[in-house]
Design goal:
This protein is mainly α and about 190 residues long. It has one domain: Arp2/3 complex 21 kDa subunit ARPC3, CATH 1.10.1760.20. The protein contains 8 helices and 2 strands. The chain has a two-stranded antiparallel sheet with strand order 1-2. Helix 1 packs across helix 3, helix 3 runs antiparallel to helix 5 and helix 6 packs across helix 7. The protein starts with 11 loop residues before the first helix and ends with a helix.
Length: about 190
């Protein structure tokens, strides 16, 4: 006889929210201004998803989004997809979203979930995403075009994005808090 114990900790409604938020991440990535590292609304989407769904479900939505892109669904900036994007110069920033989600998830689990703490750890997660993505960028860029210094990589890939990302974070926090109240998500 089969044991009917709970196999997954996600309920059907959780899976629906995860799927909808993975689609939201794709839509946010399509809103972009092309540059070496494109200006997109992806970070807004990541901040929103984490604030709206929480760390566990939010990280799951980010992973679903990245897996869709990895198998070729055009969910990344510029309607692109495929493993080549993840292995390219900007792939570290995309994978860094998972790092951001894990940091946020662990914060909720072990430190608390007050709004101030969640915002602080969104900022810490963003810094970790920048660090991971910049290291990845430098390695991928060196492989394709030659080595560059950390200062150059930061001036191309991080410094121009700090203020816009903080603005997107503030907007995502405001929108997520309002949407959570309207939807009454737990």
């Amino acid at each position: 006889m089969m044991n009917n114990k709970k196999i997954s900790s996600f309920k059907t409604t959780d899976l629906v929210y995860i799927a909808i938020c993975a689609v939201l991440l794709a839509v946010c990535s399509w809103i972009s201004i092309p540059t070496l590292v494109p200006f997109t609304m992806q970070t807004f989407g990541v901040f929103f998803v984490l604030m709206f769904l929480g760390g566990k479900r939010g990280t799951a939505a980010i992973v679903v989004f990245i897996l869709l892109g990895a198998v070729g669904v055009p969910v990344f900036a510029g309607f692109s997809g495929g493993i080549g994007i993840l292995l390219g110069t900007t792939g570290g920033y995309i994978i860094g979203f998972i790092v951001m989600g894990i940091i946020y998830w662990l914060t909720e689990a072990f430190i608390g979930d007050s709004l101030v703490i969640r915002i602080i750890f969104l900022v810490i997660g963003l810094a970790a995403c920048y660090a991971f993505g910049t290291a990845w960028f430098m390695a991928a860029y060196a492989k394709n075009a030659g080595a560059i210094g950390l200062g150059t990589a930061l001036s191309w890939c991080v410094i121009p994005f700090i203020i816009p990302d903080l603005v997107k974070m503030a907007l995502a926090v405001l929108v997520a808090e309002r949407v959570k109240k309207a939807v009454r998500i737990r």
